[in-house]
Amino acid sequence: MGTYVIETLGNLIHQTAFFNLTWGNFAMIAVACVFLYLAIAKGFEPLLLLPIAFGMLLVNMFPGIMLSLEEADGGAAGLLHYFYLLDEWSILPSLIFLGVGAMTDFGPLIANPKSFLLGAAAQFGIYAAYLIAILLQFPDKAAAAIAIIGGADGPTSIFLAGKLQQTGLMGPIAVAAYSYMALVPIIQPPIMKLLTTKEERQIRMKQLRPVSKLERILFPIVVTVVVVLVLPTTAPLVGMLMLGNLFRESGVVRQLTETASNALMYIVVILLGTSVGATTSAEAFLNLQTIKIFILGLVAFAFGTAAGVLFGKLMCKVTKGQVNPLIGAAGVSAVPMAARVAQKVGAEEDPTNFLLMHAMGPNVAGVIGTAVAAGTFMAIFGI
């Protein structure tokens, strides 16, 4: 009886995670705790960081939660593996775009079409990072999947990695993209202040013109037709983004608008966030390649921010001081975080200066621009 009890206790003890964890697992658990702290205590985009951090915590204590059906001994795949399949199949990123479209007011972009130029300029970081990744001897498809991080758009990063069959890199790419989205308020302001003068940051912009209901309804339809005809592979992202916005602006499907922008959006964020976090097992994450991906992603994001600001300065010169260059930084597709940062930096110089709505134009343009960049890469590789 005593031997049986001892063996049973021994088996129970050896089934605990303590006997299976490596130093790498403990390191990743520590990183997860830092992310949880930033999300909860500091409020750094908790909707993104909290589920990602918790997924990271789970997989480094119990790797089986991400095992596929073939890998699982008991014949049952891990819970988060099924969530992750929805990432690989591009379902969750597309649904995120549906929710973003339903939540976002495209009015500032319609009122000021020149914002498209700022959104396009901010995509420079993506192509710069692609060239750098090629120089670092990443395969061309992997380089493209990594470079898209520069758009600060997690769903598009996941979408492109899946389409380019870079599923092995999807975890680090997605975590890098979402991390930089969350850290927009920290990364962007120093770049914005470095590239602008105090006088430029104080520029007041004219109030945007009113946008008619007809314009708001036609905009998502026209953009869908034009973009998808030119780059058909963007249909899942651009199509869902514009469908969500058409729900919002049509005024006849209030229930669909509320569902897409609230319940569905938050369900998808939970599934996507935890599954992305669960790709960060120590074995897959703690290596030189992951470090390169994070560095390249930061370079791409910094270049994109700088390009947007510099193009904003050019527009400021051309329009004789009518454009505040700060709104160019909002050309990355982190909606609405980048627009809020432009407002915050401008308000530091002049608390009565209201730039938020002006910055929303380039911000929305950046979402479309990053999706177009992803479609361009897919077209280049014949996908």
Describe the structure.
α11 (167-182) packs across α18. This protein has helices spanning 2-15, 23-40, 46-61, 79-88, 91-103, 107-111, 115-121, 124-135, 140-147, 154-163, 167-182, 184-195, 198-201, 213-230, 235-250, 254-277, 282-285, 288-318, 337-349, 356-380. The protein is mainly alpha-helical. 72% of the residues lie in helices and 0% in strands.
Annotation keywords:
383 residues, 0% strand, mainly alpha, single chain
Topology of this structure?
Elements: H1 2-15, H2 23-40, H3 46-61, H4 79-88, H5 91-103, H6 107-111, H7 115-121, H8 124-135, H9 140-147, H10 154-163, H11 167-182, H12 184-195, H13 198-201, H14 213-230, H15 235-250, H16 254-277, H17 282-285, H18 288-318, H19 337-349, H20 356-380
Summarize the structure.
This protein is an all-alpha fold and 383 residues long.
- So how many helices? 20
Distance between the termini: 65 Å
- Strand runs, count: 0
Cα Rg: 22 Å
Which whole number gives the mean pLDDT? 88
